[in-house]
Design goal:
- This protein has helices at 12-15, 64-69, 82-97, 100-108, 115-122, 143-154, 168-171, 184-188, 210-215, 233-241, 274-294, 326-336, 366-375, and strands at 2-6, 22-24, 32-35, 51-54, 73-75, 135-139, 158-162, 179-180, 193-196, 220-224, 245-250, 263-265, 314-321, 341-349, 352-359, 380-387.
- It is α/β, with parallel strands linked by helices and 388 residues long.
- It has 3 domains: 1-81 and 273-302, NAD(P)-binding Rossmann-like Domain (Rossmann fold), CATH 3.40.50.720; 82-265, NAD(P)-binding Rossmann-like Domain (Rossmann fold, 3-Layer(aba) Sandwich); 304-388, Alpha-Beta Plaits (2-Layer Sandwich), CATH 3.30.70.
- Strands 8-7-6-9-10-11-12 form a 7-stranded parallel sheet. Strands 2-1-3-4-5 form a 5-stranded parallel sheet.
- It comes from Lentilactobacillus fungorum.
- Its EC number is 1.1.1.399, 1.1.1.95.
- It is an enzyme of class 1 (oxidoreductase).
């Protein structure tokens, strides 16, 4: 029986995925965490914790180094909220082009007998533009960006995509009508609208700063519904004051952005829909079950991807440092124990490696002995024995 501990409000659709072999919130000594936005950085992980699944794309609330040292695989659920973010971006593109927020605010604060006459006179100040024929730069064309690019193109916009890390698989999801820029500057220079959809890391923090904003057309409209910090907010304020940027829309508030008519801050609602929460919870639950029952890894954020058909009676999985002779030491330990290896697979990601070994025979009393023997190897973080 596997134990799962949840944090935050996890959609029931996700919890319903777990089979009878799983218990939910019965103990703190859990095999798995299924979370959303809870901050785990100050928490001490139990040794029993084998996997954390985050029902969402972001994972900056999880201490990856601590998890790896504990032998805990960490997963996110990329794409689970992509449609929700896409729809919000399209809504904001329409709202920004037609000055809907300012127009609604005007109407809400004006009333009286002569409102019709004043409205006819004043409405010209809210005259907008149509999206058709306008140029949108989409920075990052992965799960969310590709949907945004395709939807904007379907509205008649000229779309330029930029993503230096675009995979061949992701490229299949992008319409042939999307122009691919070779550089960030090339994507920005002719855009009427710019939206960013990249993960936050060392390379993307501050990706759009003063230098990039200077490249943009005067009067551009800028959107950040990816992660806070990818757009330099201080630089954005300077560009707004200089009328370089006309309006800035973001899901990530900061004091310097408040109380400005040219900034619209939403309360981190980009992926907050009933459907997106259900998608993330469902994907997270299935990820947990797949990892615990087969050891296979896809979409981990701290371990390498490795998927091997589980056809043998027994499987040993080992999380360890990516250093020389680790596989040799593991194989030697198994040979010394008189255990025959049916197949072995290994993958590495930066300083961490993951090894899957399938065995055709293993006596029940040897399980713990094998785990202890392999765990004694320096640089091994966790050993598990799985039975088909």
């Amino acid at each position: 029986m596997y134990q799962v501990k949840t944090y935050n409000a996890i959609a029931q659709a996700g919890l319903d995925q777990f089979t009878d072999n799983y218990q939910i919130n019965k103990t703190d000594e859990a095999d798995a965490y299924l979370i959303r936005s809870v901050n785990l950085h100050d928490q001490t992980f139990p040794k029993s914790l084998k996997v954390i699944a985050r029902a969402g794309a972001g994972f900056n609330n999880i201490p990856l180094d601590k998890a790896t040292q504990n032998g805990t695989a960490v997963f996110n659920t990329p794409g689970s909220n992509a449609n929700a973010v896409k729809e919000l971006i399209i809504a904001l593109l329409v709202a920004s082009s037609r000055n809907l927020f300012a127009a609604a605010d005007y109407a809400a604060h004006n009333s009286g007998a002569d409102i019709s006459l004043r409205t006819e006179k004043d409405k010209t100040r809210f005259k907008g533009t149509e999206l058709t024929g306008r140029t949108l730069a989409v920075i990052g064309v992965g799960h969310v960006g590709s949907l945004v690019a395709n939807a904007a193109s379907a509205l008649g916009m000229k779309v330029i995509g930029y993503d230096p890390y675009l995979s061949a698989d992701a490229a299949w999801h992008i319409s042939t009508r999307i122009t691919r820029a070779r550089t960030l500057g090339e994507a920005l220079k002719s855009a009427d609208y710019v939206t960013v959809h990249v993960p936050k890391n060392e390379e993307t923090t501050g990706l759009i700063g003063s230098e990039q904003m200077e490249i943009m057309k005067d009067g551009v409209k800028l959107f950040n519904y990816s992660r806070g910090g990818i757009i330099d907010n201080a630089a954005a304020i300077e560009a707004l004051d200089a009328r370089k940027i006309r309006t800035y829309y973001t899901d990530f508030g900061e004091n310097i952005l408040l109380n400005r008519d040219d900034v619209v801050v939403t309360p981190h609602i980009g992926g907050s829909t009933i459907e997106a929460e259900a998608n993330g919870a469902t994907q997270g639950a299935n990820t947990i079950m797949t990892y615990l029952e087969t050891g296979n890894i896809i979409n981990s954020v701290n371990l390498p991807n490795l998927q091997v058909p589980f056809n043998a009676p027994y499987r040993v999985t080992i999380i360890h440092k990516n250093i020389p002779n680790m596989v040799g030491q593991i194989a030697t330990a198994l040979a010394d124990a008189g255990i025959n290896i049916e197949s072995m697979s290994n993958a590495a990601r930066d300083g961490v490696a993951y090894t899957i070994i399938d065995l055709d025979n293993l006596k029940n009393e040897e399980d713990n002995k094998l785990i202890q023997r392999l765990s004694k190897i320096d640089a091994v973080f966790r050993v598990r024995v799985l039975k088909k």
